[in-house]
Amino acid sequence: MSGWNDLLAELDAWSAAGHTATFWWRDDDARSGTPELQRLLGLADKHGVPLALSVVPVTADKTLARVLEDQDRATVLQHGYSHQNHAAPGDLKTEFGQTRPYPFTLGDMATGWQRIEALFDGRALAVMVPPWNRIAPAIVPMLPEIGYVGLSTWKPRKRQRPCQGLHQINTHVDIIEWRGSREFLGTDDAISAVLKHLEARREGRVDSGEPTGLLTHHLEHDEDCWMFVDRLLAVTTTHPATAWQNPRDLFAPLRKEAA
Ligand SMILES: [Zn+2]
Fold first, then answer.
1. Ligand 1: distance of its center to the CA of 58 in Å?
2. Residue among 32, 23, 82 at smallest CA distance from 51
């Protein structure tokens, strides 16, 4: 069982060690300027926390672009192309697997980036967030060749740079129970996921330089999801050992912005 006091104790341990517990926030599958999106942006504003919205190029519309126009806190990342599953029957879902010819995959990615660039202007970063957090390892080295500076998936990264020219920053805390109810994971389990990554970083079992990534899906949130995010942001932003980082700064060393 893990509760908010356990999280505070862990953050105190970071303070005592003189380190900053860095976090970042990625929200997936944004499509339109919906009330749910407004609620998400409202939470980011309330707590002064920057937010990366991973957007599916094919389903994104102008209402999303319009809402983000005057939102300095939000940065757009590219979430695949159409969020379509191209896996072989029986395999785990993926848009960018190894069975589809790579030229099709790379073509989709590049076409998708053009749409992101056209819709979101300077608000987008050339960072690929593959749907279902899956991408065939053989495709990764091709990403910088077609202009990407970043990659974001799931679980602690193995390397900061999976190949030359590419910066990887993953997410570690998914608040939805996808395999069961598709509802909120529960406070205990969600806090446990935060603690698991923070402890592993502090003890050097994973890359301690990778910020702990909160992963949300605003179109899927039930009320408990919203309440948890609100509380997590409140607890962490008021603790002196914590810093929520801006994706623009995180991917800055190799940043390529939309024109
Ligand atoms: Zn997705």
1. 12
2. 23
What is the 55 CA–ligand 1 centroid distance (Å)?
Answer: 8
- Contact between 73 and 43 under an 8 Å Cβ cutoff? The reply is no
Ligand 1 centroid to residue 128 C-alpha, Å: 12
- Domains of the chain, start order: 4-254 (3.20.20.370)
pTM listed for this prediction: 0.95
Q: What is the pLDDT of residue 94?
A: 96
Cα(129) to ligand 1 centroid in Å equals: 8
pLDDT in tens, 107-164: 999 999 999 999 998 899 999 999 999 999 999 999 999 999 999 999 999 999 999 9
| Percent of the chain residues topping a pLDDT of 70 | 97
Going from the Cα of 59 to the center of ligand 1, the distance in angstroms, rounded, reads 11
Distance from residue 84's CA to the centre of ligand 1 (Å): 10
121, 123, 95: which is closest to 107 by C-alpha?
Answer: 95
